[in-house]
Automatic annotation (TrEMBL):
This is Nickel import system ATP-binding protein NikD. Belongs to the ABC transporter superfamily. The keyword Cell membrane applies. NCBIfam families: oligo_HPY. It is a peripheral membrane protein. SMART domains: AAA. It comes from Gelidibacter salicanalis. It catalyses: Ni(2+)(out) + ATP + H2O = Ni(2+)(in) + ADP + phosphate + H(+). Transmembrane segments: none annotated. The complex is composed of two ATP-binding proteins (NikD and NikE), two transmembrane proteins (NikB and NikC) and a solute-binding protein (NikA). It is an enzyme of class 7 (translocase). GO terms for molecular function: ABC-type nickel transporter activity; ATP binding; ATP hydrolysis activity.
Length: 324
């Protein structure tokens, strides 16, 4: 395996970004008796930058809008979704037209569900259809299957003949053989035991070779920390913190947001202490900070005012009391 190029975050700021998302919001209109009542805002003021060769994890609990974020970047949202904000790919605005042109080519998605495989097509043929070099497609597909440890005859099989783990590897192969510069992996490690998790993460990490950028969507901070350079923490539809992997070392004292600190404490290798209460429901509106109802350090000020994101210690945080 080729050695991966690691880029410390502090050095990446001057670099050209691969993906830049700014002030991004996504909402759904809500109808009552045929009249539009209001909007449910699922993603609020989201921001994230991914550089070439970087793995950035987006960590958030179930229903927090992670898959919708992936679908927004690919331009495959449900019709009723309304979006605001700016998305740049290689410094150029990512319009709906451009999304359509580069989807599956320059930006590739590993979908959350293995049901995304075509049930009527053999897996070898499916993966070959994402290969741009048509002359070499058989060889490239074979190499990818080998790299991912898939049995020799897998290419002849239909999706229903595969185990869940094998089907997931076929999905990973599709991204691997593409010439995509950005890969978005939506929850590629659901409920795996530790050994299967390690294997899958090794494969995912292989995908970031050759300066590819990667968005690794997961609810599992433990998995994120194993391969991601940076971690964007999603809470109530907002990015409350974007931390560097090494900020999770030690006692988590370098983490900036009380929610990220709580995630750190809930890790099995730490105190394993879960935070009381639940994430807000999609559409719940807060005049102040989204985390205030569960925050151990919240004040009256946090109830009434919304923290803007700020750069603290080489990371980004939305908290009035983040220490620098
Ligand atoms: N077409 C739609 N109309 C209205 N609400 C929707 C629509 N699609 C998704 N939602 C809502 O948006 C929220 C976010 O969904 P999303 O699938 O992005 O979450 P997620 O973070 O990927 O969850 P999981 O970890 O379970 O995959 C959910 O509450 C969902 O019910
Ligand atoms: Ni999802």
């Amino acid at each position: 395996m080729e050695k991966l190029k690691k880029i410390p975050f502090s050095e990446t700021k001057e670099m050209k970004s691969l993906l830049e998302v700014k002030d991004f919001s996504l909402s759904f209109p809500q109808y009552k008796k045929g009249f539009r009542e209001s909007y449910i805002e699922v993603i609020k003021d989201f921001e994230l930058t991914i550089h070439p060769g970087e793995i950035v994890a987006v960590v958030g609990s179930s229903g927090s809008g992670k898959s919708l974020l992936a679908d927004s970047l690919l331009g495959i949202l449900p019709e009723n979704a309304e979006i605001k904000g700016k998305i740049y790919f290689e410094g150029v605005a990512l319009t709906a037209k451009r999304q359509q042109q580069i989807r599956g080519k320059e930006i590739s998605l590993i979908p959350q569900s293995v049901m995304a495989l075509d049930p009527l097509m053999k897996t070898g043929q499916q993966v070959q259809s994402s290969i741009q070099n048509k002359k070499e497609k058989k060889r490239i597909q074979k190499e990818a299957f080998q790299k991912l440890g898939l049995p020799k005859d897998t290419h002849k099989k239909y999706p229903f003949e595969l185990s869940g783990g094998m089907a997931r590897r076929v999905l990973i192969a599709t991204a691997m053989v593409s010439e995509a510069k950005l890969i978005i992996a939506d929850e590629p490690t659901p409920g795996l035991d530790e050994q299967a998790l390690e294997e899958t993460l090794t494969h995912i990490k292989q995908l970031s070779e050759n300066d590819r950028g990667m968005m690794f969507i997961t609810h599992d901070i433990h998995a994120a920390l194993k391969i991601a350079d940076r971690i964007a923490v999603f809470y109530g539809g907002e990015t409350v913190e974007i931390a560097n992997n090494e900020d999770f070392l030690g006692k988590g004292e370098n983490l900036r947001h009380p929610y990220t600190k709580a995630l750190w404490r809930a890790l099995p290798e730490n105190d394993f202490k879960a935070l009381k209460g639940n994430q807000p429901e999609a559409g719940e509106v807060f005049p102040g900070c989204v985390f205030e109802p569960r925050c151990p350090i919240a004040t009256d000020f946090c109830k009434k005012n919304k923290p803007k994101s700020a750069m603290v210690n080489n990371g980004i945080v939305r908290c009035f009391y983040a220490e620098s």
